[in-house]
Prior knowledge:
This protein is an alpha/beta fold. Helices cover about 40% and strands about 15% of the residues. The strands form three sheets. A four-stranded parallel beta sheet has the order 1-2-3-7, sandwiched between helices. A three-stranded mixed beta sheet has the order 4-6-8. Strands 5-9 form a two-stranded parallel sheet.
Amino acid sequence: MDKLTYAGNLASLQDTADHDHFTFVQADICDRAAITAILSEHQPDGIMHLAAESHVDRSIDGPGDFIETNITGTYTLLEASRTHCDKQQSTNNHEPFRFHHISTDEVYGDLEGTDDLFTEDTSYDPSSPYSASKAASDHLVRAWGRTFGLNFVLTNCSNNYGPRHFPEKLIPHMILNALHGKPLPVYGDGNQIRDWLYVDDHARALIKVFKEGQDGETYNIGGHNEKKNLEVVHTICELLEELAPSGDNDHIEATYKDLITFVKDRPGHDVRYAIDASKIEKELGWTPEETFETGLRKTVEWYLANKPWWESILDGSYKLSRLGA
């Protein structure tokens, strides 16, 4: 289910569209009637709630959408799920329904030391409207579990990257700007540190937690790949020089690294995030399969090989796409 706002792209689902177990519904998680109808029709074993406004810069420019989707939307999903659970229990025809809430490490705020890590017990200290709205949604899920007995699991992940990532995010933004010979804007001095998690590793972890996680537990999911933002940009430039040399690119007068431009830092920019993922590793046996080097290479190769996908986003035509088109 997806509302298909600006970042929703049906072309990303083409590989799945013909699967017998796949159904797509365009709906808003704030629409209680629509959610109730979907639950009634499909009788799911649970919900994996990934729907969220997630771009920090957009949350600074317009926090209202983040409050509506991330907080009100989560509340609406929780209430619809609670009603659905009550109906299932009355018929005794289903396994216990599970609500899996997917959140972010940004709810924890900023790490001061170079060796500290976010654990599942780290106190919340969000810095942006985005992270504050996600923190609020986390609290709602836990409250519905404690007060109403809703079966839930909660995961907080580090920065995701990989194929089909919307171009406003750091890695695809840098790849596509570089290919077009545009500036590669780096906030401040570029020394902000993030723990990078390849999207397929995250998907495997989510399935693992949904199926095997303990009711009411939280699991941090990280990639064990702490990198400074500037280091990430340099690595992208190096991969592009190897796979799509700047000398062969008519948009480039020098090298990709010459496009790096330092810009004014954004307000409330956290310096370092880093995940302690030992709990999910010990209890559920999950570890990331990709290193940052292997994952980033796969990501750059995907964008180079899938030009129509991102061109349709840059020119806006993706908004008109339909499954199978």
